[in-house]
Amino acid sequence: MTGLRYVYAVCRPFSAPLQTQLKGVAGDPPRLLTHHGLIAVVSHVPERDFAEEPLRRRLEDLDWLTETARAHQSVIDALTVVTTPLPLRMGTVFRDDSGVRVMLEAREDDFRRTLDRLTGRVEWGVKVYVDTEPEERDAPAQKPASGRDYLRQRRMRVRANDDMWQQTEEFADHLHAALSAYADDSRLHAPQNPALSGVPGRNVLNAAYLVARNDSEEFVELVDRSKDETKVSIPGIRVELTGPWAAYSFAGEET
Amino acid sequence: MTMAGRLPEPYGQGSGANLADILERVLDKGIVIAGDIRINLLDIELLTIKLRLIVASVDKAKEMGIDWWEDDPALSSGARRKELARENAELRERLARLEPGREEERREEERREEGSREVGRRQARRHDAGRREARRHEEEEAP
Predict the structure, then answer these.
(1) Residue, of A116 and B78, whose pLDDT is higher
(2) By residue range, what is the domain housing residue B142?
(3) Are residues A115 and A87 in contact, defined by beta-carbon separation less than 8 angstroms?
(4) Most confident of A163-167, B73-77, B82-86
(5) Which B residues 36-75 touch A at CB under 8 Å?
């Protein structure tokens, strides 16, 4: 068999069929490699892109990186529909099937422990954004009549700005506390860069919550209610929900 | 093993998912395993700058199917494009300044690095850096 083995995830055997026509990285359909009662989900990938040297170069090629990241995610996504996958970091590559088996065997206990912890659970992402220029929302200030007038107007703007930040922070803390109490686990991630995400406003909360599938509907309602609350009480704040994701943020070290 | 089919409909996911959301998880989260092929994933700051370059070049991004700004009046105006072109030039400069140093750093790292341990540390630093940056923004905007 030619080519290398790209591993997406490890999971337990599952009975439901994977979505047909599913294409993984490099266009190869994901295959299931069973060993010791665990499954590694792998694709055959060409050496010309995934051997050490070319892969290093490829990762600097953003078209390729984006395409590969999306392909990786779409396989994880398809797995999430039928089972609980442990997603591996993008770019985990072995020479052949036996290399993958050796890895499965070496980490067997870890995988089982983590699978026990995550089974039946998914990840939801919640972000809070705030418009960065609140003063523009207010009515345009009158032209200051004097220097003192200017300073007074400026002071008022600064104060309004401070108030808004404080409100935003309180809201984000409150929301995170409420959602954490409901979820089985949570992680705070670094705020996203608006230039990268393409989302206007500043990202003040970027959190991930581990939630049981069966509780997910209620969790989503909880987030939806907070959206409604913000609309009435604090202008300029937005709550955004993404998911369900595989438990990416919780697959690593235990807490 | 089967799953209860009671998952709510996906929110903001699929092909329309925010690229940052996907990269954040696929590149930065998940289980780190040293495979047979040893690689260093891009430092997140460098990656961000590079991605901004792509986004800044509108036609390029369209080619890639990144077109979220078309629904965003703040981004689709000509003025905004000019702003992007300027930012593009600035970022290229910054990138040029960052790259040579990084090359050396990476070579050294490769000599020392033993697989995933470094990745873990880098991730922790990255996270701290993100927090620090958020704080710095706040301070800058304070009077």
Answers:
(1) A116
(2) 113-143
(3) no
(4) A163-167
(5) 36-42, 48, 50-52, 54-55, 64, 66, 68-69, 72, 74-75
CA distance A249 to chain B (A): 6
Counting the structural domains of chain B, the total is 2
Q: Does B32 touch chain A (CB under 8 A)?
A: yes
Residue at B131 is within a domain: yes
ipTM associated with this complex: 0.85
The string of pLDDT tens digits covering residues A227-243 is: 888 766 777 888 999 99
Residue B98 and residue B45 share a domain: yes
Residue B31 forms part of a structural domain: no
Q: Residue B40's closest chain A neighbor by CA? A: A56
Spell out the residues 6+ positions from residue A83 whose beta carbon is closer than 8 angstroms to its own. A11, A12, A14, A16, B1, B3
Residues of B in contact with A84 (CB under 8 A): 3
Highest mean pLDDT among A42-46, B107-111, B128-132: A42-46
Overall average pLDDT of the A23-43 stretch: 94
Burial of A28 (0-12, 13-18, 19+ CB in 10 A): middle
CATH number corresponding to A121-250: 3.30.70
Per-domain residue ranges of chain A = 4-118, 121-250
